[in-house]
């Protein structure tokens, strides 16, 4: 399975998670394929502020995200009036959620380790309903 299809599968899984929790969510067409898409999902719930979600999954213990990608993501969330969320899934750990400021600076990239997710990451209900 290609990285693109693995990413799409993870995004669909995340979309289903939002739906099961009573949120309305949509995958952003073309996310990861062109320069004009700045998040993977947009989600909202009645009475709550909407979220833009950047989703990443990995079988490794670290996930790297380019600084440009996060910068554009943050500009997009601000312009759209959405709250930013980084959704991370490591194998056999399920989905965890971080605020962008919880990413670690490695110089060229923002990085998040499995240990960091276990320390700072929140589960769906904690992050979105808390």
How much helical structure, as a percent, in the residues?
25-40%
Oligomer: single chain
Query: What is the CATH level 1 assignment?
Result: Alpha Beta
Overall average residue pLDDT: 91
CATH topology: Trna Endonuclease, Chain: A, domain 1
Radius of gyration: 14 Å
Strand content bin? 25-35%
- What's the main sheet like? 5 strands, mixed
Q: How many domains?
A: 1
User: What is the helix tally?
Assistant: 4
Q: Given the helix and strand composition, which structural class is it? A: alpha+beta
Strand order of the largest sheet: 1-2-3-5-6
The CATH architecture is 3-Layer(aba) Sandwich
Key features?
single chain, 130 residues, alpha+beta, Trna Endonuclease, Chain: A, domain 1, 8 strands, globular
Can you tell me about this structure?
- This protein is α+β, with helices and mostly antiparallel strands and 130 residues long.
- It has one domain (3-128): Trna Endonuclease, Chain: A, domain 1.
- The chain is built from 4 helices and 8 strands; from the N terminus they run αββββαββββαα.
- The protein has helices at residues 3-20, 67-80, 114-120, 124-128; strands at residues 24-27, 41-44, 51-58, 62-66, 83-90, 94-98, 104-105, 109-113.
- The strands form 2 sheets. Strands 1-2-3-5-6 form a 5-stranded mixed sheet, sandwiched between helices. Strands 4-8-7 form a 3-stranded antiparallel sheet.
- A hairpin with a 3-residue loop joins strand 7 and strand 8 (109-113).
- The longest helix has 18 residues, at 3-20.
- The radius of gyration is 14 Å and the shape is globular.
- The N and C termini lie far apart (36 Å).
């Amino acid at each position: 399975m290609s990285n693109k299809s693995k990413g799409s599968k993870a995004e669909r899984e995340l979309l289903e998670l939002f739906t099961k929790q009573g949120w309305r969510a949509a995958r952003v067409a073309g996310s990861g394929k062109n320069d004009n898409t700045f998040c993977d999902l947009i989600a909202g719930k009645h009475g709550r502020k909407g979220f833009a979600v950047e989703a990443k999954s990995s079988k490794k213990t670290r996930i790297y995200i380019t600084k440009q990608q996060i910068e554009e993501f943050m500009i997009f969330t601000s312009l759209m009036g959405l709250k930013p969320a980084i959704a991370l899934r490591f194998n056999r750990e399920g989905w965890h959620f971080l605020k962008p400021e919880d990413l670690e600076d490695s110089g060229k990239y923002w990085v998040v380790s499995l240990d960091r997710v276990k320390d700072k990451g929140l589960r769906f209900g904690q992050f979105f309903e808390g």
